[in-house]
Amino acid sequence: MRAARPLDDGDRERLLTGSHHDPHALLGAHPTEDGVLFRALRPYARAVTVVAKEMRAELNDDGDGLFSGVLPLRAVPEYSLLVRYGDDDAEPDELEIQDPYRFLPALGDLDLHLIGEGRHEELWKALGAQPMIHQNVTGTRFTVWAPNARGVRVTGDFTYWDGTSLPMRSLGSTGVWELFVPGIGEGALYKFDITRPDGSHTLRADPMARRTEVPPATASIVTESHHVWHDEDWMAHRADRPVHEAPFSVYEIHLASWRPGLTYRQLASQLPAYVKDLGFTHVELMPVAEHPFGGSWGYQVTGFYAPTSRMGTPDDFRYLVDALHRAGIGVLVDWVPAHFPKDDWALAQFDGRPLYEPSDPQRAEHPDWGTLEFDYGRTEVRNFLVANAVYWCEEFHIDGLRVDAVASMLYLDYSREEGQWSPNERGGRENLDAVAFLQEMNATVYRRCPGVVTVAEESTAWNGVTRATHEVGPDGFGGLGFGLKWNMGWMHDSLDYVAKEPVHRKYHHGEMTFSMVYAYSENYVLPISHDEVVHGKRSLVSKMPGDWWQQRANARAYLGFMWAHPGKQLLFMGQEFAQGAEWSESHGPDWWVLDPSYGAEADHRGVRDLVRDLNTVYGSTPALWQRDTVPEGFSWVDGDAGEDNVFAFLRFDAAGSPLLAVSHFSPVVRHQYRLGVPEEFAAWTEVLNTDEARYGGSDVLNTEPLKPESVGTHGRPASIQLTLPPLATVWLRPS
Fold this sequence. Notes:
Mean pLDDT: 96
Strand order of the largest sheet: 17-18-21-24-25-26-27-28
Low-confidence stretches: none
Strand content: 25-35%
Number of helices: 17
Oligomer: single chain
Distance between the termini: 98 Å
């Protein structure tokens, strides 16, 4: 064993301070003129010995945890390191390890090329912590994008959170750092120790972590999936029919509070059966990506690639999705690419400079939520988000992404005053980078994931949210490419109407009919979401005027109107059984109101029974969903009956078969109420009446088929006379 030439002072300092871009050039084994140079960095070790076949050679202690020596060998052998710890007074502790610095890069040139181009659609397979076998050795490849870093080190429970011994190498201009660490596998906790441009250090969770510790702990966890899917039939057929031409009735859920305390697997034993019984076609899960503050409901994400660990592992979440699919229920998740929080262990100024956020502080700050916006103009950031959308769909078999806060992404002046924003290159207020990102995301998801739908929460009159990306509109922009858009205008107008006392509703009649002016400008979802039942807005039933009976009757009539109106439906948990209190993430729905020992249990059960029947009739009636997005699927019978608080319209399926929906928002019974109907049908039969006694109503029904008379009204040569129950919606079909 010969002594090795000492390290250059600069190299030594950079290596020990975590600022070296190529530690593999200094550590490991390297052929020299005198033999093979071995150098190891093992802080706190008493001795390091090279072991190769029959050879054992102890390296010289160079101080500061560095050990080196030159062995008289012609070539680098297969070797390991025997590291001895302990002090002079204790029994030595020897550990034989594979040297991380004897391995070639475990990330290929194609991956690096795609990352550099911002086109790596499976980015989660290239970056992050990937358990693997590399050069016949089992371990984990750690990779992270940190282009501004002077150096990056891996640290974790396997280093006792001292990253000195595991500096990573830079893989060139891509800004990616890589290290394969032998012997590390699933369950290991880790973070990245990043040396900023100013030489200071920051300890960061992995932006690509696929599993995390349970908050408030923040470490990333090495993981890989072992789940065996059993939803082959669902996945094979979910693309058989376009979503906008299919039944689509959504139950929105905050998983952590639906049944507080349940794990993903426990939810899988209860949620699918409950949703299936009520007849919803889909669930929409409020954000499941990891978030540190439960009070954000998941909308301030720090772990974009990790299902929240509060309820179990990523495979546990897969198990829940699998169970929902096997019950015939689609799964949408809320996805939040609009912003991220400023936690100093997450994405904000990740490598010491703005990276995921714009460098301009005015552009970076989200004015409403105290968070940071993404830099959609940076290819790597756009790639991070586009790949994330694909990740949820492919790795977790998600059937749809509801994209949160799209409006805040589209406008440079969103919630900003004059002087707080700068126009785009065209002189306009549109965020052109965000537009391009959303178009790329939608196009990529629809190309890679057949049957998946993207849904925009977009509250403005932006033209072409659900138009194809290649179709240019009058504003010069291609469509954003979403499949569906939340109809926020319908939601606000209709809720404003039903909150009025019936005597005042005639003055607001247009708020219920205005939605049909623009109903076919986009493909719409009608959302009664979590946002409408919190923060002083009251629950759906509590928004209604009158006494308890009238409140429930109004709510039932409103739900009947909603399910018949063109567009898909979304209802937040708790509203299906007329919960009186606002939702709170701390305790979830008031399930106790359905306890038979509760005096008003029948009132709440009646509303839930109505929701079940609405979904049942809806699903079996193509007129209510097959032509949601074309004018031929709808016709007013009477949209001007403001004095009566009546709305009557026809829905038609592709074959022309109709359903007549009549909503009556007055607390009186109207007998022999005449409505014009198509003359070719011999009789009309009531198929749903929200005033049925079993729903909690007064049981004013049309029990016999109604035969048209040759009395022209509402522009039609035939008409029927029916009884309108108080505060109720009635559906009729041809007999």
